[in-house]
């Protein structure tokens, strides 16, 4: 999706004009893919713009950095505040937020130890990632020919820029084949996640989502959805799924910050009931929760 520029970007401790947020062509992470990032959304609420589960997202950014042995030169509290400052500076009631920590200009080669870490936070308007009708009509999925990283090849629990080469290859393959999104299997042939979303599939009335051991990123939206589902009396289990489990799912949805909650209408051209009854309830409740409309979940919304 095209990016709509906003007024300011936070970069290394200060808000600067959007057009001035530049990096050198020899920036280390540009060459080796060693940055870590987050995808976050701010929503319009009755209390003003609020960032959904901001503290948890920044905590995950630091977890990603720790896995990569990257030392971020700010505290989590400083980046939480910087994110709020950046959202406020845009003047937008709602927006997508991209914090990124990366090795900057000055060193080259695979040794990251002497490299300095730069940090930036940008915000811009971004609509529904898988389409405005992704809940009502659902999306078409394809099992990718590309395999999700093994834990000892690339660390799938780190939201690392280089990891997304794998996701991008799978995404483009699916789009060129006429599908909306791809599903990644791990080296053991079990379902891991989509290119940027976690998966929930219903089998015998139980919602099942793959574990992190399958190569799935521990999703913050996934965690939110699990809480919402259980609060509505739905049984949710973290367990392995095979591709055949998806073909015979009673209903299925994917979720993530960008995609929010999106129903699935088919996998490899096997039709899936869409949207399923649990999917509809969860999607509706999630849409209210992120906008601060449900008292039980208001702590998830951090007002700017």
Walk me through the structure.
25% of the residues lie in helices and 29% in strands. It is an alpha+beta fold and 304 residues long. Strands 8, 9, 10, 11, 12, 13, 14, 15 and 16 form a 9-stranded mixed sheet that branches. Strands 1, 2, 3, 4, 5, 6, 7 and 17 form an 8-stranded antiparallel sheet that branches. It has 2 domains: 8-124, Aminotransferase class 4, branched-chain amino acid transferase, N-terminal domain (D-amino Acid Aminotransferase, Chain A, domain 1); 139-289, D-amino Acid Aminotransferase, subunit A, domain 2 (D-amino Acid Aminotransferase, Chain A, domain 2), CATH 3.20.10.10. Helix 2 (54-67) crosses helix 3 (76-90) and helix 5 (220-231) packs across helix 7 (277-289). The mean pLDDT is 96. Strand 15 (260-267) and strand 16 (270-271) form a beta hairpin.
Can you give the helix content as a percent range?
25-40%
Distance between the termini: 26 Å
How confident overall, as mean pLDDT? 96
What's the architecture of the largest domain, going by CATH? Answer: Alpha-Beta Barrel
Q: What structural class do you assign from the helix and strand content?
A: alpha+beta
Which features characterize this protein?
304 residues, alpha+beta, D-amino Acid Aminotransferase, Chain A, domain 1, D-amino Acid Aminotransferase, Chain A, domain 2, 2 domains, nine-stranded mixed β-sheet, eight-stranded antiparallel β-sheet, 25% helix, globular
């Amino acid at each position: 999706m095209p990016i709509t520029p906003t007024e300011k970007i936070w970069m290394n401790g200060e808000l600067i004009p959007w057009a001035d947020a530049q990096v050198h062509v020899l920036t280390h992470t540009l060459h080796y893919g060693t940055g870590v990032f987050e995808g976050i959304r701010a929503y319009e609420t009755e209390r003003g713009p609020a960032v959904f589960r901001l503290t948890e997202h920044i905590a995950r950014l630091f977890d990603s950095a720790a896995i990569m042995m990257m030392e971020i030169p700010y505290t989590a509290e400083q980046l939480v505040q910087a994110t709020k400052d950046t959202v406020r500076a845009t003047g937008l009631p709602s927006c997508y937020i991209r914090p990124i920590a990366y090795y900057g200009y000055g060193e080259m080669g695979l040794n990251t130890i002497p490299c300095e870490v730069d940090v930036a936070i940008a915000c811009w308007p971004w609509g529904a990632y898988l389409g405005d009708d992704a809940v009502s009509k659902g999306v078409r999925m394809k099992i990718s020919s590309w395999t999700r990283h093994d834990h000892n090849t690339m660390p799938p629990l780190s939201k690392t820029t280089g990891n997304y080469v794998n996701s991008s290859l799978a995404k483009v393959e699916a789009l060129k084949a006429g599908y909306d999104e791809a599903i990644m299997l791990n080296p053991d042939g079990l379902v891991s996640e989509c290119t940027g979303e976690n998966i929930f599939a219903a089998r015998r009335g139980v919602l099942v989502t793959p574990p992190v051991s399958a190569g799935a990123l521990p999703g913050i939206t996934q965690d939110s959805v699990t809480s919402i589902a259980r609060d509505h009396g739905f049984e949710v289990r973290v367990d392995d799924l095979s591709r055949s489990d998806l073909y015979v799912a009673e209903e299925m949805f994917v979720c993530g910050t960008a995609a929010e909650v999106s129903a699935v209408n088919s996998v490899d051209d096997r039709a899936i009931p869409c949207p399923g009854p649990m999917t509809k309830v969860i999607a509706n409740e999630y849409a209210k929760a992120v906008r601060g409309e449900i008292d039980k979940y208001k702590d998830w919304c951090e007002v700017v």
